Amino acid sequence: MAMEDEDNNSAVVATNTQTGIKKGGDVGDNGACIDRQPDTVLHRAGLNQTAGRGSRSGPGAHAATGIRVLKRNMKRNGSRGCVMRKTRFGSRERDWLKGDTQRGCVCLYGGTVDPQPPASGPQASSTPQTDLQLVLCSTSTTVEELCAQRDGKGLYVQLHGDLVRRLDPSERPLQMLYDYLAAMGYSEPGRVQQEAANSDLSCLIRFYSERPVNADQQERTLLKGVFSVRKGKSQLHKWAERQVILCGTCLIVASVKDCLTGKMHILPLVGGKVEEVRRRQHCLMFSSAGSQAQAYFVNFDTLADYQRWHRQASKVVAQTVSLVDLSCYSLEAVPEYLFYSQDITHLNLRHNFMSLQGPGGLLNLPRFSQLKSLNLSHNRLGVFPECVCEILTLTELNLSCNSLHTVPVQIGNLQSLQTLSLDGNRLSSLPEELGGLTQLNGLGLSFNNFSLIPAVLERLSAVDKLAMAGNRVESLELCTLARMSHLKNIDLRLNGLLWVNSESPEAVNQVTQLDLRDNRLDSLDLSSICNLETLHCERNQLGTLTLSGSTLRMLHAGSNHLTTVNIYPVPNQLTHMDLSQNLLEYLPDWVCDCGKVEMLDVTHNLLSDLPSRLLNSLSLRKLLAGNNRLQRVPDLLDHIPLEALDLQHNKLAELPESLFSKALNLKYLNVSANALDSIPPSSPSEESLSTLQELYLTRNNLNENCGALLVGHQNLRVLHIAYNQLLSFPASKLSKLELLEELNLSGNKLKTIPSTVSSCKRLHTLIAHSNHITVFPEILNLPEIKLVDVSCNELTEIQLPDSLPATLQELDLTGNSSLMLEHKTLNLFSHITTLKLDQKSTTTAADSQSTSTPWNHGFSEMSGQRNKLCVSVLAVDRFGDGVEACYGIFDGDRNEEVPRLLQCTMGDVLCEELQHSIIDNVYMCNTFITSHRKLGMAGQKLGASALLCYIHHEPSDPGGHFSLTVANVGSCQAVLCRDGRPVPLSKVYSLENCTEEMERVKLSKAIITEDNKVSGVTCCSRLLGCSYLSPWVVPKPWVHTEPLCSRDEFLILGNRALFERVSYQEAVCTVQAVRDPRAAAKKLCSLAQSYGCKDNIGAAVISLHISQDNCTCEPPILTAEARGPPPASVPVTPGPTDPATISSSSGLISEFNSETSASEVGSEAGSTASDEHPPPGPAPRPERRCSLHPATTLCGIMVPGSVGAGAHLFQRQPSCATFSSNRSDNGLDSDDEAPLEGVISNGSKLEVEVDIHCCAFQLRSKDFDLEKQSSDYPNGKTRRQNSVVVSATNGCLLAVCGREIADLKKSPSTSSLFGKKLSNGSVVAPEDSHNLIEVALEAPKKKSGYFTAPAQQDPEDQLIVPPSLEQEVREQLRGQSPLVSAPPLPSIPPSLKDPVWDHPHPPAFASNLVPGPGPVSILQQEVYDTAL
After folding, report:
1. What is the distance, to the nearest Å, from the Cα of residue 1101 to the centroid of all Cα atoms in its chain?
2. Helix 1332-1342 and helix 1363-1374: axis angle, to 10°?
3. In whole angstroms, what is the distance from residue 1316 CA to residue 1302 CA?
4. Model's pTM, two decimal places?
């Protein structure tokens, strides 16, 4: 009904639509506007709908208007300020857009709409907003035409909720909108037209019919009003009503009320006072500074005015200089009252849209007689404002990022100028007059279009730094630098330098700092720069490097191809040297001769040995030599000052015996990923002087004997000893590490954590996953414990204290298949922010068989040393209707909001996009861009890297091979393991790793800081969110499709922090050794932490089981993996009518936050806690069938006979029933009886676990041979109790004969079969309305009898029907309508027949259930009564 109303409203037009009135133009036969302005139709909500319908003369009537304005009342929804409607268009709007992609819709917002709406809330969602006008126009429609039609003065545009700019009359709004969407990544014209009409786009680009009013902005710019004013402190002066203005640095008082003519009294406030007058209410005294100070008393009418003026004036008087900051106010001109503040010396107009003309335009800025500093950066000027050259008092001028092409010769007038910033423009030359500025000492020319160093710099003798990063200088002549003897600091990074000509006839003596980072140099000889102190040449292609070492202090030459470094003479002043990520096989001899080296980084090289002289240096404090080929570490000869030593990823079998006794200052040691089987003692004697605080021993061959050697490190705070061979950890030794804060024991063979861990009172993190721990460690009484991870173990129970520490934030118990939790335990866990548990499977065997997929997954998210987790994982094993999957990972770096939003919405967006296109590049790009739009206000300032993987069949061959489509933005990566080798599938969009992106960002004139971040914010050039950085940062993804084959083993997804520490090959080898996806993902994260990562880490592992022909059939698994617990139970799948559920926890893990009460999880956890212990051996798993080899079916339902004799056909189906204790006569509510197994009593609730039993039968032909039926089912028993026969099997497959599932759903008698919800909130599997269990559960409602719980333990969980209900059960079973005869079945190959079904004896219990006239009817009745 709402949809109809909306479309009806859309059809409403004014009555003059059909009058034929033309405003100065003609309309062609096809309705297109010809040379003149078309008609305008104004639509307002609430007009008479009947009249609107009657105004339509035909389908083509709407085409007569070229510009159409439709105005509707909009209502803000709860998604943080995005404005949406019930329907985007009515019929008229849809007809307008048909057939012509040059037409479209522009949404115009009123001027009273706040450009930055407040956060959504209960009130915000219901607050009515100002009307929204929908203007239907074309891409050729200009602002002038639109304003003429609607009698408006102008249009304004706002990007990303930021500044508001007035559009020029010649600009075309719809074309601007289309260009913006095309720049985002939309490629199809039809899709661009569709997205342009989406009101959600208002968070990215929004048009206003009037300049929006922002009260807070006006307050900071200008305050004025008519108040009672008294001059001076003398009581002789009288109070009078006067116009009072606070603008800039002055208080302005008019001499006449309500008029600004005549004399104006100016009171400078900088350095003065603003005080409260206690004798009068809402009164302030403003006084100036100095001996001739004056004062004005102002009495305000309201408290709000008083507070506003007091707040703003207090900021002014607190200043030490006369500074006026009007940045980021969307100003076109400065307030006219500002010119009364003649004492202004610093004026900041950054990030505005200043114009030349007007009373407050740039032409009037010379009126400031004392102005020294002027900032006009980011004002879209386009032309250098020559009027600025008339402000002769200027000493600092900033005109950065204004698209300037030239600098006028009048710049020579500014003889007092000392600093000139021209960065981020399009300059390629400078005027000679600039050389006459003798006082100029700072000149910024970065990110322009210079191809040569300007010659005018030779005359600027006061300039000591050449700032020309991001230009186009491809060659550097050192002789040019020699002529500029005043330049000491040269910045030429990001220039594309190809060579440096060192053949200079004279030495370059003045240059002390040289930055050549991120260029394309392959060799560098700077030996002629004899006084060089600091050199940056990272990320080039250097093979050789030659320097002068006379004064060299710092050398940064990482990420090159260096095989040697030549420095002469020996750099005796060198203190810091970075040679990481090169090809060094040995260290030069001069390195050991440097007597002042404090930090040496040679990681990721090819070193096989470290010189003994280097390690025994008396100056070296930090040595990073990881990821090399070191086989030994030289012995220490004497005490050394070494504080940090990183030797990870080498081939070390032992460490020097005297390491800890000689390096007494050592605080950090990382020897992970080596071959150590022991560690040296902390001291040769019992007394230890060790100061070691962080020790990383992960991935070695250490055993439990190393525990005794750790005792001497009593200052140890962080200990990582994961993935070794520890069988136990000495209890007495652990108790002595009292200062321990973080302990990682994962991946060992521990069966328990010593109880002495409770002695570590400062312990806040315990990670012990992937062990064989059976008893929960005694750590919940520690006062500072925050994180406990004991997943992938063999826990059976948890002993809890009476209360848990309030500091506990995360508890991971997943992967413990035998763990049972009671309600008391869950109540204690209710305050934990993140609680991870295995979800109890509720799928039947038939569901598992039909929903099994040729892949499964596991993932891990670790916060590291950060306070919050900013990484999210999306995992859906069964995506959509077919055999498909969707996985993703999102990294917000410093924010957690955007990753969570993407995790919740991106899967749904992909589902929608798959309905519109089957081209991988199209639907993946649109998915990312649409998700970017859906972020709303959160995506304006925040962003995230994102990676999405979609496993699917090719659309051209639905039954053929699987393909993997990967799309990503940012730094998240995907790696496929094929034949044991890594195959990267993603592209890292960071400025350091992608040359094309660096060039694109440079061309758009972004400012890239020295740490290679766009505007100092992010190193990624493509992100979802961060829309305020557009067009430098865009959401368009990299898309790649890879066909899958039987050689593909698994897929790894990870964020930047993971793959910075773990290489592709190591990640593949790690997963291959573990196999269990969840344990493998956890191992990857633990390894990255042990390798030194401090940030958030996220990893997902998807195990692939693709056969050679993409067949997904899987034989029954009869043997469990030797090590570690099996994966968690099968994920819960949605019902037949529910869409695929998308969650971050893969369906295997339930995360409860602090807002979830125990009662909310009681129905699930209750059945889990009361579950039986599973039988020993591997868990039964149904056989997986594929579309290429489907199983034998019966009337559309899987036939059990095709499974095979050795397969497990049955799966346990738990349920939960709740009854009031005051109606129960089983005595369980008394305290003198012990609780029964399988029964949980929780106050007024009694929860009993039962099994849903059913039997499946197979019909082989029209003539049923009962002699071949059998009652001996595998893994099952048949019992008779209380005259009611029930099956004690663990469930069975469902077979339906004669009626289709769809018919059963429609049938009134069976409509409640599919997912019936019981009175206590639990949901049981689909079953017939006369099923024995349902009869028993619903019995109290139907009759006055009581449900009788078992009086003694029944390990097989038999269902007991009381005698009072037995007769009713029989009557209902007997009253069943006969089943429709089944159609003939296809013949079954002998190889697919199950020998169980060929047993010569009929079922023994058939005749006991329902008497029938003959064998055939008996069999039919059995199928209907028990199978359903």
Report:
1. 18
2. 120
3. 16
4. 0.74
